Amino acid sequence: MTDKELFRETFSRLHASDTVYEEVLEMTENKKMRKGHYISGKVAAAAVLAAALGGTTVLAAVQGGFFRSIFGTKGQEDIEVHNIEADGQSWTAAAREWGTADEDAAERLVGEHVAQIGESVTVYGYTLTLDEYIIDENGCGAITYTLSNPDGLAGICDAGYGEYYMSPDVPMKEIYLCTTGGKYIDHKSKFVDSRSIVDRTQTTDTELHAVMYFTVPEMQEEGEGIQIVHSGYELGEKGEVASEEREEITFMPDSFVSSDIYTSDAGYTARISPVGIRFDGPIFEQAGDKGWTAKKLLITYTDGSVYQAKDEDVNNIIVGCYSNTDGGLSEVFNRLVDTEKIASITVNGPDGEDIVFERKEGFED
Fold this sequence. Notes:
Blueprint: H1 3-14, H2 18-31, H3 42-52, H4 59-71, E1 82-86, E2 89-93, H5 103-110, E3 115-123, E4 126-135, E5 140-148, E6 156-160, E7 163-166, E8 172-179, E9 193-198, E10 207-215, E11 226-235, E12 241-251, E13 260-263, E14 269-272, E15 276-279, E16 297-301, E17 306-311, E18 314-315, E19 317-322, E20 329-333, E21 342-348, E22 354-359
Antiparallel strand pairs: 1-2, 3-4, 4-5, 5-10, 6-7, 8-11, 9-10, 11-12, 13-14, 13-22, 14-15, 15-20, 16-17, 16-21, 17-18, 19-20, 21-22
Protein backbone atom coordinates (compact mmCIF):
# COMPACT_ATOMS: atom_id res chain seq x y z
CA MET A 1 0.00 0.00 0.00
CA THR A 2 1.40 3.40 -0.96
CA ASP A 3 1.60 6.39 1.40
CA LYS A 4 -1.26 8.06 -0.43
CA GLU A 5 -3.44 4.97 -0.20
CA LEU A 6 -2.64 4.55 3.49
CA PHE A 7 -3.43 8.19 4.22
CA ARG A 8 -6.68 7.99 2.25
CA GLU A 9 -7.76 4.80 4.03
CA THR A 10 -6.97 6.22 7.46
CA PHE A 11 -8.67 9.52 6.75
CA SER A 12 -11.73 7.68 5.53
CA ARG A 13 -12.03 5.89 8.85
CA LEU A 14 -11.64 9.17 10.71
CA HIS A 15 -14.12 11.04 8.46
CA ALA A 16 -11.58 13.78 7.76
CA SER A 17 -12.25 16.26 4.99
CA ASP A 18 -10.44 16.17 1.64
CA THR A 19 -8.93 19.55 2.48
CA VAL A 20 -7.24 18.20 5.59
CA TYR A 21 -6.11 15.13 3.65
CA GLU A 22 -4.43 17.24 0.97
CA GLU A 23 -2.75 19.47 3.57
CA VAL A 24 -1.23 16.50 5.39
CA LEU A 25 -0.12 14.78 2.19
CA GLU A 26 1.43 17.99 0.87
CA MET A 27 3.31 18.54 4.13
CA THR A 28 4.63 14.99 4.08
CA GLU A 29 5.83 15.35 0.48
CA ASN A 30 7.47 18.68 1.18
CA LYS A 31 9.46 17.22 4.07
CA LYS A 32 11.13 14.68 1.78
CA MET A 33 14.52 16.12 0.89
CA ARG A 34 16.67 15.81 -2.23
CA LYS A 35 17.56 12.38 -3.59
CA GLY A 36 19.94 10.55 -1.29
CA HIS A 37 19.06 12.67 1.76
CA TYR A 38 15.82 11.95 3.57
CA ILE A 39 13.94 12.90 6.70
CA SER A 40 10.53 11.75 7.84
CA GLY A 41 7.66 14.18 7.41
CA LYS A 42 5.23 12.04 9.39
CA VAL A 43 5.68 13.82 12.70
CA ALA A 44 4.78 17.17 11.13
CA ALA A 45 1.87 15.58 9.30
CA ALA A 46 0.57 14.09 12.53
CA ALA A 47 0.70 17.50 14.16
CA VAL A 48 -1.61 18.89 11.47
CA LEU A 49 -3.94 15.94 11.97
CA ALA A 50 -3.99 16.37 15.72
CA ALA A 51 -5.13 19.96 15.30
CA ALA A 52 -7.61 19.19 12.52
CA LEU A 53 -9.17 16.18 14.21
CA GLY A 54 -9.33 17.51 17.75
CA GLY A 55 -6.24 15.71 19.00
CA THR A 56 -6.62 12.44 17.06
CA THR A 57 -3.44 11.33 15.29
CA VAL A 58 -2.80 8.82 12.52
CA LEU A 59 0.93 8.66 13.20
CA ALA A 60 0.72 5.21 14.79
CA ALA A 61 -1.35 3.93 11.88
CA VAL A 62 1.20 5.17 9.36
CA GLN A 63 4.27 3.83 11.17
CA GLY A 64 2.70 0.75 12.75
CA GLY A 65 3.71 -1.53 9.90
CA PHE A 66 7.32 -0.41 10.17
CA PHE A 67 7.44 -1.00 13.93
CA ARG A 68 5.81 -4.43 13.59
CA SER A 69 8.45 -5.38 11.02
CA ILE A 70 11.59 -4.29 12.83
CA PHE A 71 10.52 -4.94 16.43
CA GLY A 72 8.04 -7.80 16.00
CA THR A 73 8.20 -11.49 15.16
CA LYS A 74 7.89 -10.98 11.38
CA GLY A 75 5.98 -14.27 11.39
CA GLN A 76 9.15 -16.07 12.45
CA GLU A 77 8.90 -18.89 14.97
CA ASP A 78 11.05 -19.14 18.09
CA ILE A 79 14.04 -21.45 17.69
CA GLU A 80 15.08 -23.89 20.39
CA VAL A 81 18.64 -24.96 21.10
CA HIS A 82 19.53 -27.63 18.56
CA ASN A 83 22.45 -29.62 17.21
CA ILE A 84 23.77 -29.24 13.69
CA GLU A 85 25.85 -31.83 11.88
CA ALA A 86 27.70 -31.05 8.65
CA ASP A 87 30.86 -32.27 6.97
CA GLY A 88 31.53 -34.72 9.76
CA GLN A 89 31.33 -32.06 12.46
CA SER A 90 28.71 -31.33 15.09
CA TRP A 91 27.96 -28.20 17.08
CA THR A 92 25.18 -26.64 19.18
CA ALA A 93 23.13 -23.81 17.69
CA ALA A 94 21.69 -21.22 20.08
CA ALA A 95 18.01 -20.53 20.71
CA ARG A 96 16.32 -17.35 19.48
CA GLU A 97 13.13 -15.83 20.84
CA TRP A 98 11.26 -13.16 18.90
CA GLY A 99 9.49 -10.38 20.74
CA THR A 100 6.10 -8.80 20.11
CA ALA A 101 6.19 -5.21 18.90
CA ASP A 102 4.95 -2.62 21.38
CA GLU A 103 3.91 0.05 18.88
CA ASP A 104 3.06 2.66 21.51
CA ALA A 105 6.47 2.30 23.13
CA ALA A 106 8.17 2.35 19.73
CA GLU A 107 6.41 5.57 18.83
CA ARG A 108 7.39 7.12 22.13
CA LEU A 109 11.04 6.06 21.90
CA VAL A 110 11.95 6.28 18.21
CA GLY A 111 8.93 7.54 16.28
CA GLU A 112 10.30 10.97 15.42
CA HIS A 113 13.44 9.41 13.89
CA VAL A 114 11.76 7.14 11.33
CA ALA A 115 12.80 8.26 7.84
CA GLN A 116 11.57 7.30 4.38
CA ILE A 117 13.74 6.39 1.39
CA GLY A 118 11.39 5.08 -1.31
CA GLU A 119 14.14 4.40 -3.90
CA SER A 120 14.22 1.38 -6.24
CA VAL A 121 16.87 -0.30 -8.41
CA THR A 122 16.67 -3.44 -10.56
CA VAL A 123 19.24 -6.19 -11.17
CA TYR A 124 18.45 -9.12 -13.49
CA GLY A 125 14.71 -8.57 -13.08
CA TYR A 126 14.82 -8.37 -9.26
CA THR A 127 13.75 -4.93 -8.04
CA LEU A 128 15.01 -3.75 -4.68
CA THR A 129 12.97 -1.00 -2.99
CA LEU A 130 14.19 0.59 0.22
CA ASP A 131 11.25 1.68 2.34
CA GLU A 132 11.95 3.18 5.79
CA TYR A 133 14.78 3.13 8.32
CA ILE A 134 16.01 4.25 11.70
CA ILE A 135 19.55 4.59 12.97
CA ASP A 136 20.94 5.47 16.37
CA GLU A 137 23.90 7.66 17.21
CA ASN A 138 26.07 4.56 17.67
CA GLY A 139 25.49 3.44 14.08
CA CYS A 140 23.00 0.65 14.92
CA GLY A 141 19.90 0.60 12.75
CA ALA A 142 17.33 -1.20 10.61
CA ILE A 143 15.91 -0.74 7.11
CA THR A 144 12.73 -2.30 5.73
CA TYR A 145 12.92 -3.28 2.07
CA THR A 146 11.12 -5.20 -0.64
CA LEU A 147 12.68 -7.50 -3.26
CA SER A 148 10.20 -8.10 -6.07
CA ASN A 149 10.05 -9.95 -9.36
CA PRO A 150 6.78 -10.20 -11.34
CA ASP A 151 7.96 -13.57 -12.72
CA GLY A 152 8.40 -15.02 -9.24
CA LEU A 153 11.13 -15.08 -6.63
CA ALA A 154 13.20 -17.99 -7.90
CA GLY A 155 16.38 -18.59 -5.94
CA ILE A 156 15.23 -17.50 -2.47
CA CYS A 157 16.61 -20.07 0.00
CA ASP A 158 16.16 -20.43 3.76
CA ALA A 159 19.40 -19.78 5.65
CA GLY A 160 17.93 -20.34 9.13
CA TYR A 161 17.17 -17.91 11.96
CA GLY A 162 14.90 -15.98 9.59
CA GLU A 163 17.65 -15.15 7.10
CA TYR A 164 17.78 -16.02 3.41
CA TYR A 165 20.35 -16.42 0.66
CA MET A 166 20.22 -16.51 -3.14
CA SER A 167 20.70 -19.78 -4.99
CA PRO A 168 23.73 -19.93 -7.32
CA ASP A 169 21.27 -20.83 -10.08
CA VAL A 170 19.96 -17.26 -10.37
CA PRO A 171 21.99 -14.23 -11.49
CA MET A 172 20.85 -11.95 -8.66
CA LYS A 173 23.32 -12.69 -5.85
CA GLU A 174 23.23 -10.39 -2.84
CA ILE A 175 22.11 -7.22 -1.11
CA TYR A 176 24.54 -5.71 1.34
CA LEU A 177 25.41 -2.49 3.13
CA CYS A 178 28.57 -0.42 3.01
CA THR A 179 29.52 3.25 3.19
CA THR A 180 29.94 5.45 0.16
CA GLY A 181 33.67 5.07 0.66
CA GLY A 182 33.27 1.37 -0.14
CA LYS A 183 33.87 0.24 3.45
CA TYR A 184 32.15 -2.93 4.59
CA ILE A 185 33.72 -5.87 6.46
CA ASP A 186 37.28 -4.82 5.77
CA HIS A 187 39.98 -5.63 8.31
CA LYS A 188 42.11 -2.77 7.02
CA SER A 189 39.51 -0.10 7.63
CA LYS A 190 36.14 0.10 9.39
CA PHE A 191 33.92 -2.80 10.28
CA VAL A 192 30.43 -2.55 8.83
CA ASP A 193 27.99 -5.45 8.87
CA SER A 194 24.35 -6.26 8.13
CA ARG A 195 21.90 -9.18 8.14
CA SER A 196 18.45 -9.46 6.63
CA ILE A 197 15.47 -11.16 8.29
CA VAL A 198 12.45 -12.10 6.18
CA ASP A 199 9.08 -10.64 7.16
CA ARG A 200 6.84 -13.65 6.49
CA THR A 201 3.70 -11.71 7.34
CA GLN A 202 4.04 -9.64 4.15
CA THR A 203 6.04 -11.83 1.76
CA THR A 204 4.24 -13.21 -1.31
CA ASP A 205 5.21 -15.27 -4.37
CA THR A 206 6.44 -12.14 -6.13
CA GLU A 207 7.51 -9.90 -3.23
CA LEU A 208 9.95 -10.68 -0.45
CA HIS A 209 9.68 -8.25 2.46
CA ALA A 210 12.62 -8.10 4.82
CA VAL A 211 14.39 -6.04 7.47
CA MET A 212 18.10 -5.33 7.13
CA TYR A 213 19.67 -4.84 10.55
CA PHE A 214 23.05 -3.14 10.42
CA THR A 215 25.83 -1.59 12.42
CA VAL A 216 28.36 1.04 11.39
CA PRO A 217 30.38 1.39 14.61
CA GLU A 218 32.29 4.57 13.78
CA MET A 219 29.38 6.04 11.84
CA GLN A 220 30.10 7.83 8.60
CA GLU A 221 32.98 10.14 8.02
CA GLU A 222 32.02 13.72 7.25
CA GLY A 223 30.24 13.80 3.91
CA GLU A 224 30.07 10.01 3.68
CA GLY A 225 26.72 8.26 3.46
CA ILE A 226 25.30 4.74 3.74
CA GLN A 227 25.04 2.70 0.58
CA ILE A 228 22.92 -0.39 -0.11
CA VAL A 229 24.36 -2.49 -2.94
CA HIS A 230 22.18 -4.74 -5.12
CA SER A 231 24.37 -6.95 -7.32
CA GLY A 232 24.60 -10.11 -9.37
CA TYR A 233 26.35 -11.86 -12.22
CA GLU A 234 25.91 -14.61 -14.81
CA LEU A 235 28.47 -17.29 -15.60
CA GLY A 236 29.49 -18.48 -19.03
CA GLU A 237 29.92 -22.07 -20.20
CA LYS A 238 33.46 -22.27 -18.77
CA GLY A 239 32.51 -20.80 -15.41
CA GLU A 240 33.74 -17.32 -16.23
CA VAL A 241 31.73 -14.20 -15.42
CA ALA A 242 29.79 -13.47 -18.59
CA SER A 243 27.88 -10.43 -17.32
CA GLU A 244 27.53 -8.35 -14.19
CA GLU A 245 24.95 -5.91 -12.87
CA ARG A 246 25.34 -3.68 -9.85
CA GLU A 247 23.12 -0.89 -8.57
CA GLU A 248 23.36 1.24 -5.43
CA ILE A 249 21.03 3.35 -3.33
CA THR A 250 22.76 5.94 -1.19
CA PHE A 251 21.34 8.02 1.63
CA MET A 252 22.69 10.31 4.32
CA PRO A 253 21.04 9.80 7.73
CA ASP A 254 19.67 13.04 9.07
CA SER A 255 18.09 12.05 12.37
CA PHE A 256 19.58 9.74 14.99
CA VAL A 257 18.01 7.91 17.93
CA SER A 258 19.83 8.99 21.08
CA SER A 259 21.44 6.57 23.51
CA ASP A 260 21.70 6.54 27.30
CA ILE A 261 25.06 6.12 29.00
CA TYR A 262 25.65 3.41 31.60
CA THR A 263 28.92 2.81 33.44
CA SER A 264 30.43 0.01 35.52
CA ASP A 265 32.42 0.30 38.74
CA ALA A 266 35.53 -0.43 36.70
CA GLY A 267 34.84 2.61 34.52
CA TYR A 268 33.67 0.81 31.39
CA THR A 269 30.98 2.56 29.35
CA ALA A 270 27.90 1.23 27.54
CA ARG A 271 25.72 3.39 25.30
CA ILE A 272 22.30 1.86 24.76
CA SER A 273 19.38 2.90 22.55
CA PRO A 274 16.08 1.13 21.84
CA VAL A 275 17.77 -0.32 18.73
CA GLY A 276 21.17 -1.49 19.89
CA ILE A 277 24.12 -1.07 22.23
CA ARG A 278 27.72 0.04 21.96
CA PHE A 279 30.42 -0.95 24.45
CA ASP A 280 33.38 1.37 24.22
CA GLY A 281 36.87 -0.10 24.14
CA PRO A 282 38.82 -1.44 25.86
CA ILE A 283 36.05 -3.59 27.38
CA PHE A 284 35.70 -5.67 24.23
CA GLU A 285 38.84 -5.10 22.26
CA GLN A 286 38.90 -6.96 18.99
CA ALA A 287 38.88 -10.72 19.50
CA GLY A 288 42.33 -12.24 19.05
CA ASP A 289 44.09 -9.14 20.36
CA LYS A 290 43.97 -8.68 24.12
CA GLY A 291 40.28 -8.51 24.72
CA TRP A 292 37.56 -11.09 25.30
CA THR A 293 34.39 -12.25 23.58
CA ALA A 294 30.90 -11.07 24.48
CA LYS A 295 29.04 -14.20 25.56
CA LYS A 296 26.45 -12.63 27.87
CA LEU A 297 24.30 -9.54 27.53
CA LEU A 298 21.35 -9.21 29.91
CA ILE A 299 19.11 -6.16 30.20
CA THR A 300 17.21 -6.01 33.49
CA TYR A 301 14.14 -3.76 33.67
CA THR A 302 12.81 -1.92 36.68
CA ASP A 303 9.93 -4.42 36.99
CA GLY A 304 12.44 -7.24 37.43
CA SER A 305 12.00 -8.79 33.98
CA VAL A 306 15.12 -9.62 31.95
CA TYR A 307 15.76 -9.48 28.21
CA GLN A 308 18.30 -12.16 27.36
CA ALA A 309 19.93 -10.47 24.43
CA LYS A 310 22.74 -13.00 24.66
CA ASP A 311 23.45 -15.74 27.16
CA GLU A 312 24.45 -19.38 27.32
CA ASP A 313 22.66 -21.14 24.41
CA VAL A 314 20.59 -17.99 23.67
CA ASN A 315 21.30 -15.39 21.00
CA ASN A 316 18.75 -12.65 20.39
CA ILE A 317 21.31 -10.35 18.75
CA ILE A 318 20.76 -9.99 15.00
CA VAL A 319 24.12 -8.52 14.08
CA GLY A 320 27.16 -7.24 15.90
CA CYS A 321 30.72 -6.25 15.08
CA TYR A 322 33.85 -4.87 16.64
CA SER A 323 35.29 -1.46 15.89
CA ASN A 324 38.66 -1.52 14.24
CA THR A 325 39.47 1.86 15.80
CA ASP A 326 39.08 1.40 19.55
CA GLY A 327 38.05 -2.24 19.92
CA GLY A 328 34.52 -1.33 20.97
CA LEU A 329 31.59 -3.65 20.26
CA SER A 330 28.25 -2.72 18.67
CA GLU A 331 25.24 -5.08 18.66
CA VAL A 332 21.69 -4.77 17.33
CA PHE A 333 18.71 -6.21 19.25
CA ASN A 334 15.97 -8.39 17.78
CA ARG A 335 13.27 -6.38 19.56
CA LEU A 336 12.56 -2.96 21.03
CA VAL A 337 14.39 -2.16 24.27
CA ASP A 338 12.52 0.35 26.42
CA THR A 339 15.44 2.47 27.57
CA GLU A 340 13.21 4.43 29.95
CA LYS A 341 12.70 1.30 32.05
CA ILE A 342 16.22 -0.17 32.28
CA ALA A 343 17.60 -0.93 35.74
CA SER A 344 20.95 -2.42 34.73
CA ILE A 345 22.97 -4.07 31.97
CA THR A 346 25.10 -7.17 32.61
CA VAL A 347 27.89 -8.68 30.50
CA ASN A 348 30.50 -11.34 31.10
CA GLY A 349 33.91 -10.12 32.24
CA PRO A 350 37.39 -11.29 31.25
CA ASP A 351 37.99 -12.91 34.64
CA GLY A 352 34.73 -14.86 34.64
CA GLU A 353 32.95 -12.35 36.85
CA ASP A 354 29.98 -10.41 35.49
CA ILE A 355 30.28 -6.69 34.80
CA VAL A 356 27.19 -4.67 35.76
CA PHE A 357 26.45 -1.30 34.18
CA GLU A 358 24.13 1.19 35.85
CA ARG A 359 22.86 4.60 34.92
CA LYS A 360 24.86 7.24 36.76
CA GLU A 361 22.92 10.36 37.64
CA GLY A 362 24.61 13.44 36.28
CA PHE A 363 27.05 11.39 34.19
CA GLU A 364 27.84 13.13 30.92
CA ASP A 365 29.82 12.03 27.90
